[in-house]
Structure formats: C-alpha cells, structure tokens
Amino acid sequence: MNLVERELEMRRLPQLMLFQDGGPVKTAEDWKHRREEIRELLCRECFGFPPRLSYEVRGQVVNTQEDAYGGKAVRQTVELEIRSPYSHASFPFTVTLPKGEARPPLFLCLAFTPSEADGLGEEILDGGFGIASVYYQDMTADYYDSHMSGLGRFCTRNQFDSWGKLAMWAWGASRMLDWILEHTCADADRIAVIGHSRLGKTALLAGGMDERFSLTVSNDSGGGGAALFRQKTGEHICDLYGKGSRLWFAGNFFRYCGREEELPFDQHFLLALTVPRHLYIASASRDDWADPVSEFLSCAAVSEVYEALGFPGLVYPGAFPKEGDCFHEGRIGYHLRKGTHYLSRWDWQKIMEYRRMHQV
Known about the structure:
This is 4-O-methyl-glucuronoyl methylesterase-like domain-containing protein. The protein has helices at about 5-10, 30-45, 70, 120-125, 165-185, 200-210, 235-240, 265-270, 290-310, 345-360, and strands spanning about 55-65, 75-85, 90-100, 105-110, 130-135, 190-195, 215-220, 280-285, 325, 330-335. By secondary structure, it is α/β, with parallel strands linked by helices. Strands 1-2-3-5-4-6-7-8-10-9 form a 10-stranded mixed beta sheet, with helices on both faces.
C-alpha cells in the first residue's frame, strides 16, 4: 500500500462500489444503477434538484463576426431563451469556431466575466478548439436575489432540496449544449465543460449530470468541488455557509456544518458521475483554501470505479504530486501547478495537451 492509499484509508470515505443496501457493484450495468443512486443522493443532500417541468429551448443568433480574432474564427452571439408553462429566462453566450476546421472539438467555458474564456480565447483557438463562453451571472445572479433572477425562477423554493446556484449554472450549461448540438458544426462527440473555483464546482456538476460532455475539467474547485471534505484543510462546510456561497447549495447540505464525517457521501461521489468518460482535475500548490491534497485524493479514490469497468483511472507513480507534475495517461487527468488560486495559461496548455492526447 502506497502513501496515497494509506491516506485514503485513514479518511474512511463512503464506498462508491456498494449500493445503499450494502450489496456490491460488480458489473457495468450495476454501475449504471449505482450512478443513479449517487445522483439522487447528491441532489437531495448537496446541490438540490433541477426543475422537473417540461421546457423549450430556443436560441437566436443576434450577431455574427466573420473575422473574429483577426480573421481566425467566426463568432456568433446567441440569445438563449428557455420557456416552461410557468416561467421563462434568457441569457446570452458566444460560440467561436476556428476557420478551416470541419468538426472542431469545443470547450464550453463557464466564465467570470463577459470576456470570452475570461480573455484567453485566442490561445484556445490556436490550440485547435472552439469555444462556447457564458458569463455565469447572466444565467442567474451570484448574490441574494430570492432566487428570482434568471434560471432561479424555474421552480418553487423549499429549505431542503431545492436547487442552489451551482445546479442552476450547471443546468444552464446543459441548455447551451442543447443549442450547440443542433445549430453548430462542433464535434458532438468532443465537447468539454470547464470552470475555475466556484465554476469548477459547477463544471463538475454539469459534466456529472450531463453525459453528453465527453470531458469535464475543474480547476481549483476545492470544497463542494473536487476536494474531499473528510480531514480537509482550508474551506469547510461552515465556511460555505457564508453570505454569498450558502446560495450555491441546497439547504440540506448545511445540516452537516461541523459534521463532515457524517456526510453520506464525499466529493469522490461527484467525480464518479463522469465515469467512464474523461475527467481532468487541476490544482495549485499554494491554494490552501481549496486544499490540493484533498483534490488529488478524490481523483485517486474515484479511480477504482474506472478500473472496475476496465479503464485506466488516475495513472500516477504511487506518491503525492510535486509542483509541475502532470498525470495524463488515464481517463482521469491531473496536474499540480506552482502558485495560488488562479486559472492560468499554463493550466490551459496542460488541459489542451490532455485533450489532444486522448482525442476527447
């Protein structure tokens, strides 16, 4: 048993490969049923349930730039409208595809600013990828609004298992994907979702819930994202009960403030929703609030599911990563960047290297 495996054993995590009744998960069909159990558990106890109403998605291209980025790409600005029998919401996003590519792979970027991919669009295009970018607060506000802005209007609220903002942003990403698959020439089999920090949490939820994403990328997502809560340093559940972040989760989640050991799940359950698709977790060595050790351990913990289904999970040398290490061989990719909480060009370069290597 190596050092990583010993640490995982000490943390006494809930078991991924056991059904809720205690029976073992043995086959790929078993895993499908176990995945649904995990999905239901995470919605009820952490993120909240998305709306169960019927809805329609319509998008209108309101602007087209034929020579974006100095002639390298074509950019469309889309106003996406979502209607149910009881409510509606709309928000803009952009889709930018490189010229000369018949079916380009695409990153769906959850962005902190209206700037495409938070200003790094050209590097992504130069890497051979298209970009769909959305300013997350255009979907619903990241502040207390009685859940009445944007997508928050799509269901009634209760204090237990109604969806939080993370689930709203993730659901909005899937509605973008609805339009992209129908109206663009992007490769439908190679669409990734990516986010940083709270949007890294969102990307994990979007990619976990929506199996149409071939790759899920989460950068420095920390508590409520990739990092295990049991024996975590930095951010804990009580910290997430702050004035802004408490809105990100369902009410039931905060029953576990100071009681992380009693959680019926840990964050490796969220990562496991992507199995057997590709997953990429990026950490930063000085991001103590997120806790890169616990992010890495979560990858190691979920690896058993990939391996049980016959796929390489996290392929690593049996020790904790050092600054600059990249583990790209398995269906779980990971790197540890030197530095603090940030989504950098270096992060993007390593993520794109992984995508090209696996053609996802």
